[in-house]
Every structure is written in C-alpha cells, then in structure tokens.
C-alpha cells in the first residue's frame, strides 16, 4: 500500500484532481497556514492543504497546561445525516475535553457534499492526520533525549464514526510514533452497502402453498413469521425512526457516492476489512428500475440485489505490524445502525492474535503468549437512538483519556 502511494506522490500533480478511492496515504509535506484565533486564546484554526483539491480547516483546542507531549484527541463531526440534528456537540463541549483529559483536542472539519463526495472525506482525514504527525507528534517533545511522542486517540459519530474507524484500523502500526492508540465510535456507519431488501417471494419459497392441506401449511407459516419477528434486524426494526431513518441514510448515500461500487471499498465501509459484503454490486436495472419500464421492482425478484453469505477476512494480516487500538463502540438500542456497531465490535475483538491463532490451529500455548496483545473492545448500548450530546461527548473524552493512559506503546 505504501509503495503504491509513493508512486502516486511522484506522479504529475494533475492526478490529484481525481484521487483514486482506496489510496492509503497522502503527501506528508502538507501546506498549511494559521488562521485567526477564535473565541478563546486556547482555540485557534489551521488550514491544511489536501493535494490540489483544496483545504481542510482544523479547530485546535489547547489544554490549560500545554505540553508538547500532551495526548492528542482527534474529533470527527457526525456529518449531514440527520434531518433535525438534536443539538450536536459544541465548541464548549470540545473545550471541556481539554480540562478532562489534559489533551490537545483537534476537530477535523472534513468536507463532504454532492460536489465533494467520497473519497474526498477519506483524503481529508488522512491529510489532517499526516499534518498532526508532522507538526505535533514529531514536534519539540520528539527532539528530547529520550524522545517523547504524544499518544493519539480519535472519536467520531455517524459519518465521522465511519472515518474514525477507517483511520483507527489502518494507522495503528505497532512501532509508529503517533499511531492511533484508542478510538471511540458513536453509531458508526460501518457498512454503506446496508442490508439488502428481501425478495417478496423469499419467505414463501420453501413451502408449497398448492398443498390443499391448509392445516399443515398454516402452522409452518406462523412459526416462520414468529421466528422472523424474534430475529428482526435493527435496520428493519427502526427504519422509520424520526431521528435517523433508513430513507435519510439511503438519500445521503446517493448524494455522497457517485457510484455504488464505492460503497464496497473498506476505506468507506470499515466492516469490509473484516468480512465480505452481503450483497453484490447492484446492476444498472437494480440501481434504477425506471431504466426498464417493463420491470416492476415490487414483484420482480431480479430487481432486488442478490444477498450473499458473509465470509470472514483476516484483518490485520497475521504477520502485519498492525495492532488494533483500544476501542469503544457506542450504539443506540433503537438505532437502525445498532447491528453494524455490534458486529464491528465483535469482529475487532475476534481479530486478536490469540483468537486468530487458535482459529488457525496454532495451539493453546502460542495463543496464550499473545493474550497480552488482545484487542481491548468495549460495547456501550445507549437508550433510544443513542446520539452524542455534550454530556455524552464529555464521557467519551474521559474514556479516551483513561485509554490513552493505559496505552504503553
């Protein structure tokens, strides 16, 4: 990945006008300029260039007892996903993180819109992370003997949670100063492919309704209906939620992605680092039934994307130097993204070296030696949709501060 990236860096600058999705890194020598101080002497803004595609503004909140080796917490806003945002965290909440964690808090105002679709936000976040590495991690504290490098944590919600997961899962090299050591994710959009709609005929395929013995058919139908109700997924159960609906997320997806193929990139859908997608890439007819007037999408099973069985992908690779960070995943009990968050937490936990080696048949002894490297994952279920407000963000900040203190690397 790094070699391919370096090749792009040496290419003509015009290539940056149409960045390739999945490009793992961005230039390390990033232009930036400091903007005016806003509201408080502890808050200032920095403008970071992203190749030739514009710039991103960072809001930097410095703690009262500023020190070059203070931890760094990156905060990624939730993005334009909600029709009626319920009071997102404000500058005062972000400033409170400084008091609680004694960390430098940086809000990355990544760009995302119909004119700046994916992979723009991915490139923005990577560029800003590179700026943090160059300017803060490898700053004055690293010149001391012995050098001191700030520990870095990240948190984000919804779209920001997706981007935070992407960065945490890819920028966690065990010997790298400034690696992401802790990550807190709130209702992350971990898989933009979303659950495929079932064919209206799917539930009936296994039962022959032509059987005249209705007394034999009806109990089977009733049993299947009851089983389906018990195992209904969160996407279906809370699709019509007022705060965060399926229609709103599908509309956002249509706006932020120019092609359905881009939903399937792990840098956009971090769950796909750990498993395959549950659907095929939609065909042209499935994307827009209007292209075939004779097709009725409500009755034609061919118009529904084909469902696939999930297949595990080993991540990180067994001999990689990636060591996943301490992680916390917050989900709402009534959020349609609940199942995604739960699955992400489970798959991160299962990626631990001991689990992987036991699954590969390495034996109990070797697996036990790796227990100290197991991934520390916490799943937090909140009432309702579970979106972060100021109080929740302060709680998350407190958790990040403790997690960064536990981190030894």
TrEMBL record:
Alphabetical list of SUPFAM superfamilies matching this protein: alpha/beta-Hydrolases
Record region (Disordered): 283-310
InterPro entries listed in its UniProt record: AB_hydrolase_3 (IPR013094), AB_hydrolase_fold (IPR029058)
GO-annotated molecular function: hydrolase activity
Superkingdom of this protein's organism: Eukaryota
Key words, A-Z: Hydrolase
Keyword Hydrolase listed: yes
UniProt keyword Hydrolase, yes or no: yes
One Pfam family recorded for the sequence: Abhydrolase_3
Every Alpha/beta hydrolase fold-3 domain range: 94-210
Protein name per the record: Alpha/beta hydrolase fold-3
The organism of origin for this protein: Lasallia pustulata
